[in-house]
Amino acid sequence: MYTKKKVLILAPHTDDGEFGCGGTINKLIEEGSDVYYVAFSACQQSVLKDFPSDILITEVKAATSKLGIKKENLILFDYDVRTFNYRRQEILEDLIKLRSDINPDVIFIPSLNDIHQDHKTIAEEGLRAFKFKTLLSYEMPWNNISFSTSSFSILEERHVDAKVKALREYQSQAHRSYANEEFIRSLATTRGVQIGARYAETFEIVRIIL
Fold first, then answer.
1. Residue 89: what are its φ and ψ, rounded to 5°?
2. Could you give the CA distance from residue 6 to residue 151 in angstroms, rounded to a whole number?
3. Which of 86, 91, 107, 132 has the most CB atoms around its CB within 10 Å?
4. What is the per-residue DSSP string for 77-90?
5. Rounded to an integer, what distance in angstroms lies between the CA atom of residue 100 and that of residue 127?
6. What is the pLDDT of residues 59-78, one digit of tens each?
7. What's this model's pTM, rounded to 2 decimal places?
8. Domain spanning 6-207: CATH 3.40.50.10320
């Protein structure tokens, strides 16, 4: 139902979209959808001192390219990490402009129950801006106290491979416990088992417009 649609990925921080739905992004592009990726912060305040403060800008360009996203479909904002809740109205206005400029059919957002303050803000403002569109929340287990596995995207090996390759570009984030191939593949396998497939990603249904 999402083949050859305009799809918008809302990533609070660079790499969130890849972790949450990287395999599905690659699958949708393969099937002819036009995917836009919007990141609201490159987290310059929290990058390890071993790396340039703007390293995540370089890394997100490389990572989204690995998934097949056109460079002109990558949109980067410059909000400071962990301050989104103070800038809700500005973020909402950015989202409304994106709605007007892109007019997407399907929007992927973090879970409305995500406990990271920036993620929760993008989810809530995303819902406000796109309440008349199909909205799906992607999974980030390290931030989700609860998550409803109410929708699945079946993935093939090549889609998981693309996700892994994209996330390898984030060398500045390699120290994080969830940023490793074993975890990425095991989660895809677990979600696949739930629906009798080899691999899958799961999403909470916020709203579906048929």
1. -65, -40
2. 19
3. 107
4. --PPTT-GGGGHHH
5. 15
6. 999 999 999 999 999 999 99
7. 0.97
8. yes
